Structures are given as C-alpha cells and as structure tokens.
C-alpha cells in the first residue's frame, strides 16, 4: 500500500470519528447554552464520549499527516460533513434528502480532483523554529480578532476553529516528520515546543467549535470544513515545499475541484445535520375528565 493511499484511508476513518463527535457536540450545545453550560458539560458522559471521538479522529489524522502531504490530508476533512449528514438524519428520524445527496456527490467529485493533483510522496520537510513561531503568532492574532464579542459569533468562532485546526495540522506534520527522522533527536527543544503549540491549537479549536455549534451544526461545520484546509494548504504550499502535479493544468483542475467541493459543502451545510424533528402535537388524555362548562353557558 502506497503512502498516499494509506493517508487517504486513515483520513476517511478520521472523518467518520470527527463527524460523530460534531453531531454529539451540536446536540449537547443546544441543551447547555448559557454561562453555566460549559461547567455542566464536564459532568456529561456524552460530552466525554465526544471528546474521545475527537481524540481518536485527531490521532488518525496525525498518522495520516505522516504519510500524506497537507494538500491531500486536509481537504479530506470535508468528508466529516459528508458523514455527519446521514448521522444527523438518522438521529433526527428522517431520510437523507435529494439536496444532501447532490451535495455529497459534488463534494466527493471535488475531492477526487484534488487528490489527483495534490497527491505526492510522504512529507519530509518541516517548519523551522522561527517559521513555527511566526505561523503560530499570526494565527493567535487572527483567532483573537475572530473570537471577540459581537454579532454572528457562531460563524466567527467556526472560522477561528478552522484556523486553529489548520495551523495545528501544519505544526503536527512538523512534529511527526521530526519524530520519525532517524538522524535527528526525538525530544529536541524545537520538537517539544512545537508539540506544545499543537496541543494549544487543538484545544482551542475544540472549544471554539463547541461554542460555534450552539446556533446549529450546518453552517458552522461548513465554515470549519472550508477554512481548515485553506489555512493548511497555504502553509503547505508556501512553507513546506508542497506542489500541485500537472503544471498549469493541474492548478486549474485543483481549483475546479476546490470549487466543486465548496459547493457541495455549502449544500450539505444547508441540510443542518443536527436538525431535530418537531415534537408531536399534544393529544388529550382520555383518562382526564374535561372541565364542565358553566350551566348558564350551556343553556345558551
């Protein structure tokens, strides 16, 4: 099995784990809105299950980054939304709609084009210490601006979560390449420092996504899904020496695939995988006697 194929398989399983965690987080967030909601989550077994699913998805994602470039692994994160749609529909007790199927088809077609143009050998480049600090500092400034109080916090927090996740993935690849490099020290100061940054960005991305899902799952998850690979691809192409195959034709194919996948993600986001069925109308209990009308009204 080639390195790229292994990275794709690991990314598929990771996306399923992330999707299950996202659906669980959205349903929990809807029930724990408010200042004390975050504290109540700590006592919820379902929230800890979602954390475990996120951790499983993250571990698989880390391994995938060792065998595949960022430009391949990160776009496959769109499969999280593809998997979340049937999961959310199942929990809501409804069927997957035609729009959802169309969004799934467009997303898969776009990802296929990206895989053909972006596939390459296992990564062997990594960020230097100065580059890692510049990337992390720039990301912190951007995340702080997006997470400030104001209007439409859900979409802004979702964008901030995507930025944190994309930067975290780029830094993770640096750690995995350094850790598996037989010629370098496994626990050098640079590796440990970057690993701490990865943990900080991963935690921040998780918390930001949790707050973003309070207004629903569809649109915030779509924003996370789109912003994450964009940030990671920019870092990979600009700083890690990754390239698209096929020259100008490959670039056009990659852009077309990105547009198709983006359109599919937007369609899937409108489906709102976390929607819940409306409660059935209340029916009168035959065991409870109805109140009798006053006698003077009955005569009328």
Question: Average pLDDT across residues?
Answer: 76
Pattern of helices and strands:
HHHHHHHHHHHH
The number of helices is 12
Helix fraction, binned, reads over 70%
Q: What structural class is derived from the secondary structure elements? A: mainly alpha
Uncertain regions: pLDDT < 50 for 5+ in a row? 273-286, 296-300
Number-wise, the strands total: 0
Radius of gyration: 23 Å
Strand content: under 5%
Envelope shape: globular
Question: Oligomer, anyone?
Answer: single chain
Alpha carbon gap, first and last residue: 86 Å
The largest β sheet comes out as:
none
How many domains is the backbone divided into?
A: 1
């Amino acid at each position: 099995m080639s390195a790229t194929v292994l990275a794709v398989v690991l990314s598929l399983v990771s996306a399923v784990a992330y999707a299950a965690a996202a659906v669980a987080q959205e349903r929990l967030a809807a029930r724990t809105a408010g200042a004390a909601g975050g504290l109540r989550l700590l006592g919820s077994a379902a929230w800890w299950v979602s954390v475990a699913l996120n951790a499983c998805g993250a571990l698989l994602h880390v391994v995938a980054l060792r065998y595949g470039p960022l430009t391949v692994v990160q776009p496959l994160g769109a499969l999280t939304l593809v998997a979340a749609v049937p999961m959310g529909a199942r929990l809501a007790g409804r069927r997957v709609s035609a729009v959802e199927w169309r969004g799934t088809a467009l997303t898969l077609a776009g990802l296929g084009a990206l895989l053909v143009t972006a596939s390459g050998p296992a990564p062997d480049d990594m960020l230097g210490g100065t580059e890692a600090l510049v990337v992390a500092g720039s990301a912190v400034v951007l995340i702080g601006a997006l997470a400030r109080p104001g209007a439409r916090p859900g979409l802004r927090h979702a964008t901030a979560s995507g930025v944190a996740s994309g930067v975290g993935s780029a830094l993770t690849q640096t750690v995995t390449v350094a850790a598996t490099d037989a010629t370098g020290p496994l626990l050098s100061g640079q590796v440990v420092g970057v690993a701490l940054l990865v943990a900080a960005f991963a935690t921040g991305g998780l918390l930001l996504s949790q707050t973003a899902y309070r207004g629903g799952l569809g649109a915030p998850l779509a924003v996370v899904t789109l912003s994450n690979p964009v940030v990671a691809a920019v870092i990979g192409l600009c700083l890690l020496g990754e390239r698209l195959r096929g020259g100008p034709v490959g670039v056009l194919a990659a852009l077309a695939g990105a547009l198709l996948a983006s359109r599919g993600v937007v369609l899937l986001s409108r489906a709102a995988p976390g929607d819940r069925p409306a409660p059935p109308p209340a029916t009168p209990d035959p065991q409870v006697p109805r109140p009798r009308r006053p006698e003077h009204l009955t005569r009328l």
